UniProtKB/TrEMBL annotation:
Short name of any one Pfam family annotated for the protein: Phage_term_smal
InterPro entries: Phage_P2_GpM
Top-level taxon: Bacteria
Name under which the protein is recorded: Phage small terminase subunit
Gene Ontology MF, one: DNA binding
Length: 236
């Protein structure tokens, strides 16, 4: 673990170098960037020695703090230079379960249109939406929960991004389920959740949200049903 003074120096140097690099240009040649690229190559070599995905995720959690000063510097002063370190750390944060941290980077990356390294087949927007949706759906499938705020932020960040309908449907489905989470979500959340599920099914009919939609619509009917006798009595 480096000292606070060292971390501050690394952050300031990264901020200065990224501020001096024009949008769309590569950070290649900048001292802070080149040092981080070297560290990244060493860490990727360590990760290749691990076959377990859970093991890789745990190692990434251990490695990520070393990149934090650089990332903070870039996010504070960057002009949108192409940056393989930044985009890789964004993905690693998702793999390690640090979704808010990943979205902090995603906001910058998507705003400036940074490209993913060649080894990633998906566009940035699709990758962000689908990776977080998959994590949420996995948790929900096993009876767990997922942070609704993370899903809503992901929806907002990727709303204008082009991606396959199936990928967007996953995010809508996960967000709809998270919105409806709990025994009594209440009418406003119920209506929002139903709308999200309908949009997911409309985009991809096999997304897996039909039973969720049926349950939500039954809940809606149960909420609306007690109002009917009162309305009838008032009419009489």
């Amino acid at each position: 673990m480096t000292s606070p003074c060292r971390r501050h120096f690394e952050k300031v140097r990264a901020a200065q170098e990224t501020a001096a690099t024009a949008p769309g240009q590569s950070m290649a040649g900048a001292t802070a960037y080149e040092l981080q690229l070297l560290q990244l190559a060493q860490d990727r070599a360590r990760l290749k020695q691990i076959q377990s995905e859970q093991g890789k995720a745990e190692l990434k959690r251990q490695l990520l703090p070393a990149y934090a000063p650089y990332v903070e510097g870039v996010l504070s002063a960057g002009q949108g230079a192409q940056d393989e370190v930044l985009t890789t750390v964004m993905v690693w944060r998702m793999d390690a379960g640090d979704y808010p941290g990943a979205l902090d980077i995603a906001e910058y990356v998507l705003r400036h249109g940074l490209l993913m390294p060649d080894r990633f087949a998906r566009t940035t927007g699709c990758l962000v939406a689908e990776e977080i949706a998959n994590a949420a759906l996995k948790a929900q499938k096993t009876g767990g929960t997922f942070d609704l705020a993370v899903l809503e932020r992901t929806q907002k960040l990727t709303a204008a991004q082009d991606m396959p309908d199936e990928a967007r449907a996953k995010l809508l489905l996960a967000t709809g389920r998270a919105t409806l989470d709990g025994e009594a979500p209440g009418l406003p959340r119920l209506l929002i959740g139903i709308d999200l599920l309908k949009r997911a099914i409309d985009l991809h009919s096999s997304c897996g949200g039909k039973k969720d939609l049926e349950r939500a619509e039954r809940l809606l009917k149960n909420i609306a049903a007690p109002e009917a006798p009162e309305a009838s009595a008032a009419a009489d």
